[in-house]
Amino acid sequence: MAPISKECDFLVIGIGSGGLAAARRASGQWGAKTIAIESNRLGGTCVNVGCVPKKITWNAAAIAETLHEAKPYGFNIKEVAPFDYKTFKHKRDEYVKKLNDIYARNLAKDKVEYIHGRASLLSQNEVEVRLDDGGKETIRAKKILLATGGHPNIPKIEGAELGITSDGFFDLETMPKRVALVGAGYIAVEMAGMFHHLGSETHLFIRHENFLRPFDPMIQEKIITEYERQGIIIHRNSSQSKVERGDKDGWLKFHYADKSSPEGGAVMDIDCLLWAIGRSPEVSDLGLANVGVAQDERGHIIADDYQNTNIDHIYSLGDVCGKIELTPVAIAAGRQLANRLFGGPDYADAKLDYDNIPSVVFAHPEVGSIGLSEPDAIEKYGKENIKTYKTDFTAMYYAMMPAGEKAPTSYKIVCLGQEERVVGLHILGQGSAEMLQGFGVAVKMGARKRDFDACVAIHPTSAEELVTMK
After folding, report:
1. DSSP labels for 404-435?
2. pLDDT band at 4 (very low <50, low <70, confident <90, very high)
């Protein structure tokens, strides 16, 4: 073991959203001597291969959608050249690189020492860092935070490595002609929408009848119907058996079974295969066994609501814990942990409240949800104590469009008990992402249905339906 080369109050391993937030708060606000270690690009999944480039691509897809929808409003737009995806991709990369640089400057501004390397635990207070130049450092820290995030899974079938994951999506230089996506979570659903609206023939393979299965049934039913209306091809009850190189350069032969071919034997020629079948924690060489840090059956680090692991002075948060894998959750947890560890008596009990966290799926149309689905509310409180309010309508935006081109808007409010406290809110339709942030505050504050009713509607908007529902 190398001699101790550095010492600090707080050592953060993994400088994604959560690790960055914790390091900056600990050093910049509370003055703790902090060292941050990252083996990849600063910002983690969100900035580099997640939320940020995803939303930029979603914006491009939404613009393509709007151009298609402009004709019923009287606009005759002539396309003089196809969508220049390559130029778009490189501009998106430049924006991400700019964010990487901003994050590095922010660490320096908050006096966080940043080391690029791969870290592993030696003991509950010591970490070995393998540096880019092949050297090693041993750092002793009073407290250590594990915020290493996760990585996409690839199935164990023949030829699976010929496909890409959500990480590889952002490396594509051109849009594929025919793409197969495998998965039923929000990553698969979002990317299917983006591929489709940017011009790819899109096939989405799911294991069951619906996707987004953790969401309220209303969301599941409406969004899958809408995707099929738009022309995305859904392969239900599917499984995959083999992938092999195709007859044409760059193409693949994708072997599968689905509802139409339950016995298997179906083969599809595709020029892109994207696996979106879940993520696993990034822990393979973190040295958890050296210290005895507890993990669950999927390998996630077990941490309580205060981000404590089972080992004193070692903490963990974000995707590596597998609790709620959302960027703002990791950021909020990181700041609260730094407050508790270094903020003095006023913050002795600081922690993130993991209840009623809003989430959004950037599908086409957008989906927003906070609190309990109707089935979950019934299971938790009993059917006799739950009342739901629901509305389906066509947003005014689609007033000028033919009947077959009108996208749905659906809202549901799930209420508890005689006072009708709102314990679930589920919305699908244009603008849902921005809308949910405001309504999320109300739900978090314990709003009742009558509080919604007491708010004067803003007309004409889709959001007014949430305060006029009967």
Report:
1. GGPPPEEEEEEEETTTTEEEEEEEESTTHHHH
2. confident
